[in-house]
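Lab channel / #folding
Pinned by the channel admin:
"Please post every new chain as: sequence first, then the structure tokens as a reply. Keep commentary short and put observations after the output so the thread stays searchable."

First post following the new format, from NK:
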Amino acid sequence: MAEPVTDAAAVAVAAIESLIEGDVPDVTSVPEEAFDLVEKVRDLVESTVLTDVGPDVRSAAALLVEQATALLKGATHDSAVRFARTPDGRIDQLAQAGSGMLNPQAPRLVIRPILGAVDIGSEPRSVEVVADCTLTAAHSGPPGRAHGGVVATLLDHILGISTSAAGWPGFTAGLEVRYRDATPYGVPLEVRARWTHRDGRKSFATGEIVADGRITAEATGVFVAPRDMQARWRGDTDLPQPDNAAN
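Reply from TO:
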């Protein structure tokens, strides 16, 4: 069994290499039963938050969950990193917490097809990225609204996708979120972002969340690409040593 890759830069470089070599599997290779399981677990989590059943029913449910957990642990991956190509050509990490289709903790954030995405290594340009999301009671914070950390997660994720769509991706180095109004759960949300510019290895992006026609939160983000990651997509043969510094 292979050792899991834990270094973020090494994982990113591996993703770039897979993209260059064209060996990223299509998301359709994942069985539908895997996605169905994720949706059922999401429903379970929300039901657990909202339930008012008695102790006996809770105990019986806990036993069933324990049995299901044992079944799922029967075979596991070496790493929580699962890359796949989406129908619109985007490379997605299916297990990540922002919108991962194989991660039940991730909000149901559905990225709309991205038009005009730029190939990595080309001159970057801004591309509008839009996603739809309906949060649940499992994401609640103050009464009647989503937790601020969940709101920040949505924005961080969509801003990061916008830098990739623009052709200049990186890791989050800074995120400033302004909460302008309550972000509700149980209501369709539109989450939008666009890359604005770059400065060296740094990419800058802005985005917002819209509910019922009003902006509830907006953010600006800074994303930094490690030098070795950039070298891979530029096709440099003399690769520098891995560098995780955000500067």
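NK: Confidence is low (pLDDT under 50) at residues 1-5, 237-247.
TO: also worth noting, DSSP finds five helices and eight strands in the chain.
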